Amino acid sequence: MATGFEIHDLVWAKMKGFPAWPGKIIEPKPEVKRPANNKKVHHFIFFFGSENYAWIPEENIYLYSDHRDKFKLEKRIPKGFKEALEAIEDELKEKPFIKTFKTKELPSIDEELAQIFPGKPSGSPQKDYTREPLKGKKSMETQNTVRRKRMSNSDDNPKPKKAKVIAKVTGSPSKLTLSPDHKLKPKIRAELPSPRPEHNLPMSPPSHSYIQASLSPGNASASTQIEETLLKVKPVAKPSIIPTPMRIGFLGLGIMGQGMVMNLLRSGHEVTVWNRTALKCRDFVKSGAFKGNNPAEVVQSCDITFSCVADTTAVKDLVFGNYGVLQGISKGKCYVEMSTIDEETMQDVAEAITARGGVFLESPVVGSRVPALEGQLIILAAGERKLYDECYSCFEAIGKKSLYLGADIGAATRMKLIVNMVMGTVVAGLAEAMAMAEKVGLDQEDVAEVLSVGALSCPTVIHKSQAILSQRYDPHFPLQHQQKDLRLALLLGDKVEQPLYVASAANELYKKARRLGYGESDISAVYRAASN
Ligand code: NAP
Question: Which intervals of the chain are annotated as region Disordered (predicted)?
Answer without folding.
Answer: 115-218
